[in-house]
User: Fold Fatty acid-binding protein DegV from Fictibacillus aquaticus.
Amino acid sequence: MKVKIIADSGCDLPKQILDNLNIEMMPLIVQADGEEFLDRKTIEPVQLYNKMRNGSAPKTAQVSPLTIKETISTYAKENIPVIYITLSSGLSGTYQTAVLMNEEIKEEFPEAQSAIFDSLGASLGYGLMVYEAALLAEKGESIETILSMLEQFRDSLQYIFTVDDLEYLFRGGRVSKTAAFMGSLLKIKPVLHMKDGKLFPLEKVRGRKKSFSRMLELMKERTGDTSKMTIAISHGDDIESANLLKEMIKDEFKTNEIIINMIGGAVGAHAGPGTVALFFLSKPVRS
Assistant:
């Protein structure tokens, strides 16, 4: 029986991929303007970005324990193997909650083949892991084989991104008010990356295109043969910038495929409109 892949909405994969590969998505919670929404179900990313542009300061919450337990239990009852790949434990409590719920499920269904995997990632970087896991599941690979691939993929995955407005990082507690003000004044576009599941600043660059050029320089430093890789770009309601970065990558690298999608509410609530993120592997995992 094929392994069922479950992810939460923080993976930011396009709906077409989710549907084609039979990936089940569980929505994280977004709170904005006194209302609570389910990411990508009762609020679309563009709606959230418009709220943020109008002054809203949204917050996010993890997938509910009940939703996690009910979803995994559905497959456990049918003895269908399941891997739930979660948003980074450094950014959300979903992983820890899922582990606890899975322990309860296994008490009720001792034969259940269910595993929880911490992506230590976010947005389409995390989404690439889900994508590769689902491809293996479609081929009929075992739960052990898929988990082994995920560990290799997680170790190799690189995240580099830039934000358009430091104000949103200030709201999320990532930079000081002074840094946000001066950065906006000087048109500073910080380049950041993810390490051990958490976000860290790399350097400050003046101007949008220069920040993209620096992202490509870092990509050259961190990767080798890209011809067999799937590269991903996610954006905070800024498809023009995402496409610009895509063309810059195509000019510099041999690429197997480039996936582009909008950053959902789970990550976008903290990064803000105009964020552009690049995801690739330091070495190929797929043969």
About this structure: The first strand starts at residue 4 and ends at 8. The chain has two domains: 4-155, 157-281. The chain has eleven helices and 13 strands.
